[in-house]
Design brief:
single chain, 574 residues, alpha/beta, 7-stranded parallel beta sheet, 13 helices, 23% strand
Length: 574
């Protein structure tokens, strides 16, 4: 394993020489290939036993020659696991599969980010995600800069004892990071882009995180105490100083393995994960311990990925990954051996209904209504008032327009003021703020009806306790906000009256997903590892699982694994 870095230049030269005469136009995968495959891209695994007598350099040359002889173009080579990423047309694919030194050829799969902006799409409160995060008295709540997730993991207690992860690296594989966000205090230790299909994404202090996902994940880990952007950049109800991460003392790295749309290839992710592991001193880097945090996944299993993650674990790093948001089987890479699979819970420690389940779930972390950093100015802050009252806990819809409108507030009408029916219109809304009840039709339908009626802003009030975040289908130019049930019902009794609905830019956002749970656990693992540096990755995992807060069925189960990670107990026993 340790020889890989030293022969990188030689391997690249051999690979380029072997492929220089090839002209291949990649074609779409075969009809039998899965839908989540990158067109014309494959991963090839060579038989490892047959190469044991050869040096690493010889193996690299033999494998590159085999690919070139078949008519393929090699795009990445991983000699330590006897595998490579290649571009193949149909003829080259057939030739490579027929090569007796080849164990398999498989698609280069697509993996996607496993987090999404908080909001609900249902027509009424259900027992699932729509009901989560809406309880008036949650088991865990935010306090100052400490999010509810911080408090569930007892981060204040950890910080009071000096446990912040100092001396351990956390390497995030994601969509990038806004290194300019004050919460990171320009302390990013390393950054590298592995998405080769997108230009101008190589600088962490320039535009690179178009989807915002990686910046959000990184804030959960590393946001610095007292370093926020101020009240003008925060969400309703937040502390003016922003948020604080679980492990503010770690060395933070970002491997940009997912592109602007939040997706990336297995091969690119393997390259990023290998770069993370290369930060270890044992691999020629500068870090004693490395936790690799992957808030991504996909449904198809890859033999090459399994080889890669096994290799990384054997090098001493710990890989932690999101189990996925389908409410189904655990996704990959979380489902592989030697990858720690993370599910999500809400602020009452109930399983998030989107969180995947199975024997591969090892631990859970906070994953519902998680507030963290996004690229500066790319979040949405919502404000609303009416009848002389400024409302608390106002949420912006995900596809709302930005701006502020002050004017008359008018009840939209319809049964229970729900304003349903795709052709429903109310001329009285023209030039005014539409006040609508959540109910039997979608937020999209209500909003579309109000805008078609000429409304300049939309206020939708909840039909259950708690704040109302909303997901829309189409993008709107008017502000669309959600308010509390009590505020909406009280406002109805004051009509006619005036008010304001405003959505402005923010530097934070609330997300849901196993993507949000994963950095909580990754950061917790780093904090524990820093406090107990003599542990191996295997010993660390055993400690984390044995000290987790048991949830659900007693002992390990398919929903919560061993339970909620508890870094303080792992360190102190209490």
């Amino acid at each position: 394993m340790k020889h890989t870095r030293s022969i990188l230049a030689a391997t690249l030269a051999l690979s380029l020489a072997a492929c220089s005469q090839q002209t291949v136009t990649p074609v779409a995968p075969e009809a039998s290939a899965p839908a989540d495959a990158v067109a014309g891209a494959y991963l090839v695994g060579f038989k490892q036993g047959n190469l044991s007598s050869q040096s690493v350099t010889e193996q690299a040359a033999v494998q590159a020659q085999a690919i070139a002889a078949a008519g393929g173009i090699m795009t990445s080579q991983w000699v330590d696991i006897s595998a490579a990423a290649v571009k193949l047309d149909a003829a080259a694919l057939a030739k490579l599969r027929a090569n007796p030194s080849v164990e398999y050829v498989e698609p280069d799969y697509v993996r996607t980010a496993q987090g999404f902006r908080s909001g609900v799409t249902d027509r009424k409160v259900s027992a699932g995600l729509s009901a989560q995060g809406l309880t008036a008295q949650a088991l865990y709540a935010p306090s100052g800069e400490f999010t509810w997730g911080d408090n569930a993991l007892r981060v204040q207690n950890l910080r009071a004892s000096g446990y912040t992860g100092t001396g351990v690296a956390v390497c995030v594989g994601d969509t990038g990071i806004d290194g300019n966000h004050p919460e990171f205090a320009r302390k990013l230790k390393g950054f590298k882009n592995f998405v080769t299909t997108e230009a101008n994404r190589n600088d962490p202090y320039a535009l690179n995180d178009v989807s915002h996902h990686g910046t959000h994940v990184s804030g959960t880990i590393f946001a610095q105490l007292g370093a926020g952007t101020g009240a003008s950049g925060t969400l309703s109800g937040m502390d003016a100083n922003g948020v604080v991460g679980v492990a503010t003392g770690v060395n933070l790295y970002m491997a940009r393995v997912l592109g602007d749309t939040g997706s990336g290839s297995s091969s690119g992710i393997i390259n990023g994960v290998n770069w993370c592991a290369a930060q270890l001193k044992s691999q020629g880097g500068t870090e004693d311990k490395v936790v690799i945090s992957l808030s991504l996944g996909g449904g198809s299993k890859s033999r090459t990925e399994q080889r890669a993650y096994t290799s990384v674990w054997q090098k001493g790093a710990m890989t932690i990954a999101a189990t996925g948001n389908d409410g189904a089987a655990v996704s990959y890479p979380a489902a592989y051996t030697e990858v720690v699979g993370i599910g999500a819970v809400d602020s009452n420690l109930a399983k998030a209904d989107f969180s995947n389940f199975g024997t591969q779930v090892d631990l859970v972390g906070p994953g519902v209504d998680v507030i963290s950093t996004v690229p500066l100015g790319q979040g949405s802050q919502a404000l609303a008032s009416g009848g002389g009252v400024s409302f608390p806990e106002v949420k912006a819809a995900d596809l709302t327009g930005k701006g502020s409108f002050t004017g008359n507030i008018v009840a939209a009408g319809g049964t229970n003021n729900e304003f349903c029916g795709t052709t429903t219109r109310n001329a009285a809304l023209a030039g005014n703020i539409a006040l609508i009840a959540r109910g039997t039709c979608s937020f999209e339908e209500k909003t579309a009806n109000a805008v078609a009626s000429g409304a300049k802003a939309v206020m939708i009030y909840n039909n259950a306790a708690g704040a109302l975040g909303m997901t829309l289908t189409n993008t709107y130019t008017v502000p669309v906000v959600g308010i509390l049930q009590a505020d909406g019902q009280a406002l109805l009794t004051k009509l006619p009256t005036t008010g304001t609905a405003a959505v402005t830019s923010a530097d934070y956002e609330s997300y849901n997903g196993t993507s949000m749970a994963t950095p909580h656990v990754s950061a917790a693992a780093a904090v524990v590892w820093a406090a107990k540096p003599t542990l191996t990755n295997t010993q660390l995992l055993s400690l984390l699982t044995s000290t987790a807060k048991d949830l659900g069925t007693a002992g390990k189960d398919n929903n919560f694994g061993f339970g909620l990670v508890d870094p303080l107990k792992a360190i102190t026993g209490q």
